[in-house]
Amino acid sequence: MWDRSTPRTPRSTVDKTMTMREAISSFVHDGDTVSLEGFTHLIPTAAGHEIIRQGRRDLTVVRMTADIVVDQMLAAGCVTRLVSSFVGNSSAGSLGELRRRVEKADPAPLVFEEYSHYGMICRYLAGAQRLPFYPLRSYGGSDLPTVNEGLRKVTSPYPGPDGEPEQVYVVPPVNPDVTIIHAQRADRSGNTQIWGLTGVQAEAVYAADKAVVVVEEIVEDEVVRSDPNRTVIPSHAVDAVVACPRGAHPSFAQGYYDRDNAFYRAWSGISKDRDRLQEWLKEWVYGTADHAEYVSKLGEEFWDSLAVGEAMSLPVNYGRRL
Amino acid sequence: MSTDLTTTPGVTSSELLAVVASRELAARRTVFAGIGLPTLAASLAHLTVAPQLEIVYESGVCGAHPSHLPETIADAVLITGAEAVLSMPALFGYVLQGGHIDVGFLGAAQIDKWGNLNTSVIGDWEAPKVRLPGSGGAIEVMANSREVFVVMRRHDPRSFTEELDFCTTPGPDRAREEGVRPLGTGVTRVITELGIMARAGVGEELTLVAVHPGVTVGQVRENTGWDLAVADTVETVRPPSDDELRLLREDVDPDRVYLR
Q: Would you list the DSSP string of A154-223?
């Protein structure tokens, strides 16, 4: 008989919390393929900075929108290969270091695999499901397949609407050694809740061998279990949980802090000049012991400028058996 | 190209392009739009010719009700109060590839007469003179939207070119040549500071159908890098009305974030 007054005893959970330093040193190794996801929202910047601090080399970075954090990792010499579908400083300009690497091989060439957004999404979908490839209605007539041998065309085994076999492009799975994402909250075992833009984070986590989830806050199990539909990634897919408030700056965390648009605009100027960019890294990444120091260096007045007001979602009734 | 060729006094090129693009959205239901000119055009259309218009953003937001003008497609104000926020696989897989978008808005560094686009590189892909951002979702927008509008500020022979340096985003003509069958008809409208080019569908090239007041057909042809086809009757674009300008300036973008 079930006890009618209280829920069943919770299953024993493993505490996967660790510091950012421990998580990066345990799960990111030289030569690894590292996926960093977060589509404009919840970009794992603090994790990227810790990878720079720990001096990782020869990484393959997989990221749909290679943006400021990728430019910083490139400038720090961490990355030799990039897999991406958009390389730009959001709508605020260019990535200086990336352009120097690609246009002039300065200071070193960068191997670049170029896809489209849905091509990248399909690579994660194939990776997450351990499928050999994934089909999509893109790339027909594009020059991208001429520069990316990952893009291949197959004949559908089924006839199309007109009875004729259809040609369709496919992309290969991606299975990163580790995927790192940023999220609003998780419990200690890694049940991870995201609201607002949920992007492709769940697919990237399931595609990876290991997953590190960085969160604004670690909450009690009951908080997560009060709203299980908000859990985008369950704990069985997560290897480490890192508490790192404001770790997505200059991107944003819906409900926690807003996007630092001024920094996005400033980055185009900073990164255009290699010396300025190196100075920036020296001051803000190498010059800070961890993200907490970066946060306090920016100062409370700065964080007040990114503060957001409340807009609570109304509770839903999950119901319970009487 | 400078704005000198347009003769409507006191109207910026952003205002002109936004107004012209908004009129093209009449009777459309769903539009896939980026931030900037497409947002201005879609927001104005919502207040004028297309009250039922739904803007779908590449970040996954459907039915946004923003309290402030969004600064990016992922601005927090697009999410709070929105009707739905979809994951990337749902947005690209179900909404776009599933065929739910009437009009997609795209920009490009280069376009050719068939409406194929380059957003990857100027020069050779392996060692480019300029590395551009790449496709993003443009390939999917082109392949799957019922039709595509291109808005380009610059109208010169380097951008409107016979031969793209690299074809990032092909129209359906190129796709069909290799047996792939995209859903959409590709680019149907190209709006620039000089005028409007149109294309009815697969197998047709872009044709000049309208010029802005004060712009001649000859000027448009001179600034186009291929032998531009011209419609039998070239209309003169109706200048932005006082009403359109007022809505744009007072309701859509009062802080002039995009109305530069």
A: EEEEEE-TTSSEEEEEEE-----SEEEEEEEEE-TT--EE--S--TTHHHHHHHSSEEEEEEEEE--HHH
Closest chain B residue by Cα to residue A253: B76
B contacts of A272 (beta carbons < 8 Å): none
Task: Tell me what the pLDDT averaged over chain B comes to.
Answer: 92
Q: Tell me if A141 and B130 make a contact (CB, 8 A cut-off).
A: no
Q: What are the beta bridge partners of residue A253? A: A257
Question: Is pLDDT above 80 for A185?
Answer: yes
Measured CA to CA in angstroms, residue A293 lies from A247, A287, A289, B133 at distances of: 11, 9, 6, 33
Mean pLDDT of A192-219: 98
What is the complex's ipTM, to 2 decimals? 0.94
Q: How large is the average pLDDT for residues A75-100?
A: 94
Shortest Cα–Cα distance, B178 to chain A (Å): 7
- B131 → closest Cβ in A64, A102, A141: A102
Residue B207: DSSP 8-state:
E
Tell me which chain B residue has its CA closest to the CA of residue A156. Answer: B180
The predicted pLDDT at position B132 comes to 96
Is the pLDDT score of A1 beyond 70?
A: no
DSSP secondary structure of B72-112: STT-HHHHTT-SEE--HIIIIIIIITTT--SEEEE--SEE-
Q: Which residue of A has its CA nearest to B169?
A: A142
Q: How far apart are the first and last CA of chain B?
A: 16
Poorest-pLDDT segment among A8-12, A152-156, B95-99: A8-12
Test the B interface: residue of A90, A125, A197 with most B CBs within 10 Å: A197
For B45-70, the pLDDT digits (tens) are 999 999 999 999 999 999 988 888 78
Provide the number of CB pairs (under 8 Å) joining chain A to chain B.
Answer: 180
Each residue of B17-44: pLDDT tens digit?
999 999 999 989 999 987 788 888 998 9
CA–CA separation, A27 and A44 (whole Å): 15
Active-site option among B15, B24, B54, B58: B58
A169 and B180 in contact by Cβ < 8 A? yes
